[in-house]
């Protein structure tokens, strides 16, 4: 089998507040709503995903952290309860997901060929992190498309930023090569917030939107500057400014998902579509899409 392709990539942030405010039956806490502009952005992204008809979703989450190498979910069916350790009052989600183990193993092997340390996660009782769950729920709440979950080795934190980004770019190239050989239509999901400056006290009513705004004006300005470059298709400029963005906005893209996704898509010089932007406890969150195939 051959001629697989990446049909699109999405920035799909993972604040658990979005699941909480959505009130799905899988999540135990109940809310009165909130963060509607971001949830409506996800509605538009879901419609686009539906039109793309992917065979598999690949998600890279900063909250599945592995200190030794890059890990891939490798169990055909995973079920359990995922709890956000910071916001257990908002996110206690009973999940069940199907894993594309063949593609996960192929990505793992291709990454090894790139010289990266990798491993397949075979624990059938593994509790999937809330970042992976939130991104997947918001993009495809039907849970009817197999997934490949990829851990965050956080190499840009442990190495220099340049060395870490280089490693994530090699992981992206390896991911693309595995997808091409698989014959499948794949969508990539970068589970990242942009500006990561946030409040340290939660309102009495978490979904009280009168309390919500950017925590940092500087972080907000950097997010707008980078989003505008993405909307213009200037990804090389985005990566040239990447170190300054990470430093000024404390941007979560440093954890690796963003350069992984862009490298896998070979830095397409096409305008990204902004489905929406909003803050969650002061952080900056954009839902964005690069469509590579009709």
UniProtKB/TrEMBL annotation:
SUPFAM superfamilies: LigB-like. It comes from the Bacteria. Coiled coil: none annotated. One of its GO terms (molecular function) is ferrous iron binding. Residues 10-286 form the Extradiol ring-cleavage dioxygenase class III enzyme subunit B domain. Pfam families: LigB. This is tRNA U-34 5-methylaminomethyl-2-thiouridine biosynthesis protein. The lineage of its organism: Bacteria, Pseudomonadati, Pseudomonadota, Alphaproteobacteria, Kordiimonadales.
């Amino acid at each position: 089998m051959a001629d697989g392709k990446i049909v699109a990539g999405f920035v799909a942030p993972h604040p658990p507040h979005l699941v909480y405010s959505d009130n799905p039956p899988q999540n135990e806490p109940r809310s009165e709503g909130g963060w509607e502009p971001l949830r409506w952005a996800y509605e538009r992204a879901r419609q686009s995903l539906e039109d793309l008809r992917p065979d598999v979703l690949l998600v890279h989450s900063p909250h599945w952290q592995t200190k030794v190498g890059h890990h891939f979910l490798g169990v055909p069916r995973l079920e359990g309860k995922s709890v956000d350790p910071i916001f257990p009052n908002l996110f206690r989600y009973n999940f069940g997901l199907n894993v594309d183990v063949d593609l996960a193993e192929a990505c793992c092997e291709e990454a090894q060929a790139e010289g990266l340390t990798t491993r397949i996660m075979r624990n059938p009782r593994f509790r999937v992190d809330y970042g992976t769950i939130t991104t997947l729920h918001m993009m495809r709440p039907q849970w009817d498309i197999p997934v490949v979950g990829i851990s965050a080795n956080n190499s840009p934190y442990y190495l220099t930023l340049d060395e870490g980004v280089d490693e994530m770019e090699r992981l992206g190239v390896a991911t693309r090569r595995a997808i091409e050989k698989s014959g499948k239509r794949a969508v990539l999901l970068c589970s990242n917030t942009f500006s990561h400056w946030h409040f340290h006290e939660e309102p009495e009513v978490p979904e009280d939107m009168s309390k919500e705004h950017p925590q940092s004006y500087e972080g907000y300005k950097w997010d707008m500057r980078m989003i505008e470059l993405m909307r213009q298709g200037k990804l090389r400029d985005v990566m040239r400014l990447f170190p300054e963005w990470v430093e000024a906005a404390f941007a979560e893209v440093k954890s690796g998902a963003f350069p992984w996704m862009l490298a896998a898509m070979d830095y397409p010089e096409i305008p990204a579509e902004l489905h929406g932007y909003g803050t969650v406890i002061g952080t900056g969150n954009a839902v964005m899409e690069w469509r590579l195939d009709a």
